[in-house]
Amino acid sequence: MFIRMETNNKAEAIKSWLANHRSLETQASLANHFGKSTTFVNLSLNKRMTTKGAESLIEQIYEYLVEQYGI
User: Fold this and answer.
1) What is the C-alpha to C-alpha distance for residues 25 and 19, in angstroms, rounded to an integer?
2) To the nearest 10°, the Cα dihedral for 35, 10, 20, 61?
3) What's the half-sphere exposure (Cβ side, CA atoms, 13 Å) at 61?
4) Is the pTM for the entire model greater than 0.70?
5) What secondary structure does DSSP assign to 1-70, as a single string?
6) pLDDT tens digits, the chain, 71 residues: what are they?
């Protein structure tokens, strides 16, 4: 779990959105877009890696999905 509850909520929102919109984005496509490994994206979204970099990635992914798809 991330220290900031807001980041935890964003990770859950991203996972939920991805589950319902697989034709638009996947963890792999997000990893490619942000230049990260799929494993890093997966560990971050599942809150198993809670480093500053993982928290930053969650924020970036959330902002991208808001801008791109209006989640």
Assistant:
1) 9
2) -20
3) 34
4) yes
5) --SSHHHHHHHHHHHHHHHH-TTT--HHHHHHHHT--HHHHHHHHTTS--SHHHHHHHHHHHHHHHHHH-
6) 888 899 999 999 999 999 999 999 999 999 999 999 999 999 999 999 888 999 999 999 999 999 998 88
